[in-house]
Design brief:
Keywords: Pyridoxal phosphate. The protein has 2 domains: about 5-20 and about 265-380, Aspartate Aminotransferase, domain 1; about 25-265, Type I PLP-dependent aspartate aminotransferase-like (Major domain) (Aspartate Aminotransferase, domain 2, 3-Layer(aba) Sandwich). It has 12 helices and 13 strands. The protein has helices at about 25-35, 45-55, 65-75, 95-100, 120-125, 145-155, 210-215, 250-265, 265-280, 310-320, 345-355, 365-380, and strands at about 60-65, 85-90, 105-110, 130-140, 160-165, 170-175, 175, 185-190, 200-205, 290, 300, 305-310, 355-360. The strands form 3 sheets. Strands 1-9-8-5-4-2-3 form a 7-stranded mixed β-sheet, with helices on both faces. The two termini are about 25 Å apart. About 45% of the residues are buried. It binds pyridoxal-5'-phosphate. The site of pyridoxal-5'-phosphate (PLP) has 15 residues, from helix 3 and helix 4.
């Protein structure tokens, strides 16, 4: 059996599914931070949060060390714990669901929709029980879910909605950025994301109460920004010691990278948009390939470009013959023993688990490479 190479071992002439976008300015700015004598959470982290708030209209913003931490902190703020159920999607990177287990709760999987790979609101509603403590939705691939419909379900049953927006920085729903509205919206700044800080994350919230709680829970239950008047007490005046927290804060090295990323977001997003629009135009009427549905009231950021394809293993091998790499982003999560094993009622999830692959999508792709990809897919 041939061993599949790690991404970093692949030859440079291969067109990769993903890549890392690091603006030139990043090295200079990180150099300045490293020499500043303060690399822990500080000025740079504050600057990053302010920039993010202004750029995407977040009412309140908390920076964390990764997207998984953002999700777990959100569940913790809602008090999700042992005996609780959290309704989630099985079609996502496992982090969306491992955090539920970390909190001691049980993921209950709703089915997804074949057309856009997002969770099906009707299936969410069917899975609600007395034990349901929260709903997590993923804006899959940066293509937003129908927030109005899902929030309305949440309101009717008084169940809070967490948005896993790891893919959706800069995407829009009904004219507003993801994170501009919403009580707990979690982003990831991991290496292949549209902007990245090596690893990093943030939570946007419209609730001042949640904002205060999140600030505390991500650093041992302590609000680092709170007033301190006692010269010798290590903790701020309002520290009560009654909340168990995590160590999820973002340091200033990470924040510097994230901050430079924001300054170059438009550039990176424009490249993705152009590629996404080209793919959609050129690949929309093929027999063996089906594109996802994109809706007129939403703007995707094309974080990834999933397609449905007939016989995906054959397709992957065929693409590899042209030195084009295609990937499966994730398998349905329920099949893994940690999540309890394969569910039999996830009909659309089962279909997608057999035929979804990602076409290359990143800021390093040239026009010529995109033309080649289009040409090769058309010929399949
Ligand atoms: C949908 C989804 N949720 C959560 C995460 C976790 O983010 P992070 O890697 O920043 O912890 C990822 C990571 O890629 C993801 O794709």
């Amino acid at each position: 059996m041939t061993k599949v190479k790690k991404d970093y071992e692949l030859s440079n002439d291969l067109i990769r599914t993903w890549s890392t976008f690091v603006p030139k300015q990043a090295a200079t700015e990180v150099g300045k931070t490293l020499r500043s004598k303060w690399i822990n959470t500080g000025k740079k982290e504050k600057e990053f949060k302010e920039k993010a708030r202004k750029k995407w209209g977040f009412p309140y913003c908390v920076a964390v060390n990764n997207g998984t931490a953002a999700l777990r902190a959100s569940l913790a703020v809602l008090g999700v714990g042992y005996g609780d159920e959290v309704i989630s999607t099985p079609f996502t990177f496992i982090a969306t669901n491992t955090v539920i287990l970390e909190q001691g709760a049980k993921p209950v999987f709703a089915d997804i929709r074949y057309d856009d790979l997002n969770v099906d609101p009707k299936s969410i509603e069917e899975k609600i029980t007395k034990k349901t403590k929260a709903i997590i939705v993923v804006h899959y691939g940066g293509n937003p879910v129908d927030l109005d419909e899902i929030r309305s379900i949440g309101r009717s049953y008084k169940i809070p909605v967490i948005e896993d927006a790891a893919h959706a920085l800069g995407s829009k729903y009904k004219g507003k950025y993801i994170g501009e509205t919403g009580k707990l919206v979690c982003f990831s700044l991991q290496v292949v994301k549209i902007i990245n800080s090596g690893d990093g994350g943030m939570i946007s919230t419209s609730s001042k109460i949640y904002y205060q709680k999140i600030k505390e829970i991500i650093w041992y239950g302590i609000d680092r920004e709170a007033k301190k008047t006692n010269l010798l007490d290590p903790f701020p005046d309002n520290y009560r010691g009654d909340t168990l927290g995590f160590k999820y804060n973002m340091n200033d090295i990470t924040a510097t990278l994230a901050s430079v990323g924001i300054e170059h977001y438009d550039e990176a997003a424009a490249v993705r948009r152009k590629i996404g629009e080209r793919y959609r135009k050129a690949l929309s009427n093929l027999r063996k390939v089906k594109l996802l549905s994109y809706f007129p009231d939403r703007e995707p950021n094309y974080q990834i470009f999933p397609i449905h394809v007939k016989n995906r293993i054959k397709f992957a091998n065929y693409m590899r013959d042209y030195k084009i790499m295609v990937n499966i982003n994730n398998r349905r999560n329920d099949i893994y023993p940690i999540f309890g094993g394969e569910r039999t009622d996830l009909i659309e999830t089962a279909r997608c688990d057999k035929d979804v692959v990602l076409l290359p999508m990143h800021a390093d792709l040239t026009n010529k490479q995109v033309s080649l990809i289009i040409d090769v897919v058309q010929k399949y």
